[in-house]
Amino acid sequence: MFFQQAIDRKLEQWIQEIRESADLPLRLRLWNGDQYELGRFEQPRVTLTVREASALPLLLSPTLNNLGEAYVQEKIDLDGKLADIINVSYSLASAAAVSSGNALARVVRHFAHTKEGDRESIQYHYDVSNDFYKLWLDQNMVYSCAYFENGDETLDEAQLKKIDHILTKIRLQPGQTLLDIGCGWGALVLRAAQKYGARCLGVTLSQNQYELATERVRAAGLQDQIEIRIQDYRDLTGQFDRITSVGMFEHVGRKNLPGYFRRMHDLLADGGVAMNHGITSSDTAGGESSMGGGDFIDRYVFPQGELPHISLALSAAQDGGLEALDVESLRRHYARTLEHWAERFETNGETIRAMVGEKKYRIWRVYLAGCAHAFDADEISIFQTVLQKAGKSATSIPWSRRYIYA
């Protein structure tokens, strides 16, 4: 009885503190039927149901990690429109941090990134199943930031424009050799061979991606132009006229970035052009997203992922022997991409739940929508960087950026 009374007092104090620091459109419903409105003026748009008493410690310290943990473990339910759920979760975590006097700190992580460990991390994330990704990606299964040239494109149109945007930026020409590091399900190399006449090598560490990409190359009759391999970029040899790396360097590790770019330098032919397209931290120290979001992603979605600030990425590229010729932010493009993915995920929610189970369904549901919010709020960003070997005349691309849009 005394323990329950102490919990009740702590919960009431917490609710009062949240009400005073934020006006949240949130209804809190406990397992015993008690309900509380956390908004002073706004009507509830989200209902947070605490299904068992063991969830209270997570709720009373509502970092994004704790809320995500409680949701994934089915200790709480969140009902309402997905965008409202994510907005309320961020606001709740922020309000709790302010009321407790805790700084919204960003944690800087470092991992060993051995070849075996990286392969396990990649396979954990990408080998859920190809059918799973087909339910919410575009028709070409491009799992990276799309490019909304005008802002009103469909996801299919924007993903194709993204690939063309990259291949135009690096001035890919017929007969040139192209290496795609982290080739996914093969969309970029297929486009590079079909439209631009390039000879391509795509490498991945995902068995599922390798099998489907190989099947797609065969179906397109492009075996003479495209090779797909399961291979670590550190084991590659040879030289290539063009190199692309799209959504891959997030897995490299900050300490390993100079070596990553040095490997790209060694694989790039003299006079060649490379493109690095990757997610970055908005924190100059390289901290993950604030309020515990990075902890949740590392545990459940992207093991050993590390995001550098763009300044560190550019510094590492120079240390690795590559000069940045062009840098473009696509942050709002990724927010829009993730909104499309989250909407498709919601539309196919019951099919996905039946396919992967309740836990994985919940993980990916909050991950996709949460990342859309993080990009929109400048918690994280993304940049495309065109590179050439350092110490050379800058003749790899034209004088102005007009060629990209011609």
Can you walk me through this structure?
This protein has 406 residues and is of the alpha/beta class. It folds into 2 domains: 99 residues, 2-Layer Sandwich (Nonspecific Lipid-transfer Protein, Chain A), CATH 3.30.1050; 291 residues, 3-Layer(aba) Sandwich (Rossmann fold). 46% of the residues lie in helices and 17% in strands. α3 runs parallel beside α11, α4 crosses α15 and α13 runs antiparallel to α15. The mean pLDDT is 89.
Number of helices: 16
Helix content: 40-55%
Globular, elongated, flat, extended or rod-shaped: what is the shape?
elongated
Counted up, domains total 2
- Uncertain runs: none
InterPro entries: CFA/CMAS, CMAS, DUF7884, SAM-dependent_MTases_sf
Pfam family, one: DUF7884
GO molecular function: methyltransferase activity
Active site: 371
Describe the protein's topology.
Elements lengths: L1 H20 L4 E4 L5 E3 L8 E5 L5 H5 L3 H9 L3 E4 L2 H19 L14 H12 L3 H5 L20 H15 L7 E5 L5 H10 L2 E6 L2 H13 L6 E5 L9 E7 L10 H11 E14 L11 H8 L9 H10 L2 E8 L1 H17 L1 H8 L1 H19 L3 E10 L12 H4 L1
Helix pairs in contact: 1-4, 3-11, 4-15, 10-12, 13-15, 14-15
Keywords: Lipid metabolism, Methyltransferase, S-adenosyl-L-methionine, Transferase
InterPro entries: CFA/CMAS (IPR050723), CMAS (IPR003333), DUF7884 (IPR057206), SAM-dependent_MTases_sf (IPR029063)
Organism: Ralstonia holmesii
